[in-house]
Amino acid sequence: MSATDKSSYNYDDLLKPVMSTLSFQGHPYALPFYGESSMLMYNKQIFAKHHLTMPLHPTWDQVAQLAQQLNDPANGVTGIMLRGQAGWGMNMAPLDTMINTFGGRWFDLNWKPQLNTPVVQRAVTFYANLLQKYGEPGASTAGWQECLNLITQGKGAMFYDATVFGGVLETPSTSTIAGNVGYAYAPTEVTVNGSHWLWAWSLGLVNSSRNKDAAFQFITWATSSQYLTLAGQTFGWANVPPGTRASIYQNSDYQKAAPFAQVTLDSINTATPDQPTLDPVPYHGVQYVG
């Protein structure tokens, strides 16, 4: 992208942490359609019914205590939803951040695996017990979609997952609890390092493309501030693709429609892919080893 292209595209408006994940040696290779971190979403009506308050920065121990108090399977209410289905894009998404914040890591500086260490075992045991005791029914086959369905139907008290789901929760056509959802930062335990992930769904251009000019025009349009405005006016401001541009977080229409906006922005800006663990590691990435 030339200097002229960057200026007309307002490249500097793109969130720097997101662009850092889409760059190699300082050179971007893709542009973000939306970016995300992770946060804790909760049903404020269920909390009010039990006279409970969610801390803005909870610990995992506090989350477990709340899940115990809120879990009510007899009345169809799950204490907490976490992806339980096996797979990197499923249960490993939340579990990786839990391992990180509990003080664990995948490898030491010599690339020796660390998954059998006591601290990792503690994190995995904590995760498994939380799901087995207070998690969604059939947790071992539940991915983000099943968990999202439960909370949007008012059948779950808490859901730890991607910040992008805030838009779904605040849209009445997709959520029975729109307007009654609270947002807290990702739970921590012994360190904030790696406690919330950083990810971007992006568009790129391959060298073999036969229509590079047209592809470039589409990519820069679909990731532009003008597109975000069009999306807000067309689909509702809560459904604007989040996590890409700083300017959308200064938009008053978006701020009114998206009570999750500040937590999302803060979480993206404070994610630590370059220092994902308490102890030093030779790799980059929060929920992956890069």
Protein traits:
single chain; 290 residues; alpha+beta; D-Maltodextrin-Binding Protein, domain 2; two-stranded antiparallel sheet; 12 helices; 11% strand; globular
Q: What is the topological layout?
A:
Elements: H1 3-9, H2 16-21, E1 23-24, E2 27-28, E3 31-36, E4 38-43, H3 44-49, H4 60-70, H5 92-101, H6 118-134, H7 144-152, E5 158-162, H8 166-169, E6 181-185, E7 199-203, H9 212-222, H10 225-235, H11 252-257, H12 261-270
Antiparallel strand pairs: 1-2, 3-7, 4-5, 4-6
Helix pairs in contact: 5-6
Tell me about the largest β-sheet. 3 strands, antiparallel
Overall average pLDDT: 96
Helix coverage percent of residues? 25-40%
| Structural class assignment | alpha+beta
CATH superfamily of the domain at 38-197: Periplasmic binding protein-like II
Q: What is the third-level CATH name, the topology of the domain at 38-197? A: D-Maltodextrin-Binding Protein, domain 2
Give the class-level CATH name of the domain at 38-197: Alpha Beta
Distance between the termini: 25 Å
